[in-house]
Amino acid sequence: KGWRTITISRQAGSRGREVAEALAGYLQVKTNDRCPWTVFDRNLVEKVLTDHHLPGQLARFMPEDRHSEIENILGDVLGVHPPSPTLVAKTTETILHLAELGNAILLGRGANIITSRLDYVFHVRLIGSLERRVAYIRKMLQMEEREAREQQVPLGDRAVVELVQVYFRFETPVRVVRVPVVVGEVNRGAL
């Protein structure tokens, strides 16, 4: 089948960025395509701002998790930023455009939901044991194990669930799309 785009949804700390980068390198070599495979993660926000001619300072209002409703209303009323649903709509447009162009690996931001009806997009869900995710987050954020285990990992996982519940009206990200591949314990040399 001609997969042009890949989405990766993941649990907090499951090394999504590392897996996406390794996959992009692998696909570039295997497909020998002139157009490089590109990972869109944090840089997706910059792409959305550029595509829709929005000021760069809006990037801080576009985290992967959502702002509180009060922050959203105040920001809109005070003219600090457009309402979050507007930013999500613009992000959706950009994700669909990137998927159509192809050779894109879209990490998070509901890309698996947004592209769920496109038959040329392959969806992957990364999961990992709590122990490995905690260890990874501890190392990346240089924090104590207890803080990573009790705060950071649950916060990251909760943020994803809230994003899909609020903006896409789904209960959980796993039930959203029939995921053809679930990758469990990913080892660095696996790809």
Characterise the protein shown here.
The longest helix is centred in the last third of the chain and has 24 residues, at 145-168. The chain contains eight helices and five strands. The two termini are 20 Å apart. Strands 2-3-1-4-5 form a five-stranded parallel beta sheet, with helices on both faces. With 191 residues, the chain is an alpha/beta fold. The relative contact order is 0.21.
Strand and helix map with partners:
Layout: E1 5-10, H1 16-31, E2 38-40, H2 43-51, H3 69-77, H4 84-101, E3 104-107, H5 111-114, E4 121-126, H6 130-141, H7 145-168, H8 173-176, E5 181-183
Parallel strand pairs: 1-3, 1-4, 2-3, 4-5
Sheet with the most strands, sense and barrel status: 5 strands, parallel
Write the H/E string, N to C. EHEHHHEHEHHHE
Shape: globular
Rg, please? 17 Å
Order of strands across the biggest sheet?
2-3-1-4-5
* Helical content (DSSP H or I, runs of 4+): 40-55%
Derived structural class: alpha/beta
Number of helices: 8
What is the count of β-strands?
5
Q: How much strand?
A: 5-15%
Overall pLDDT level: 76
**pLDDT < 50 runs, ≥5 residues:** 72-78, 173-182, 184-191
Distance between the termini: 20 Å
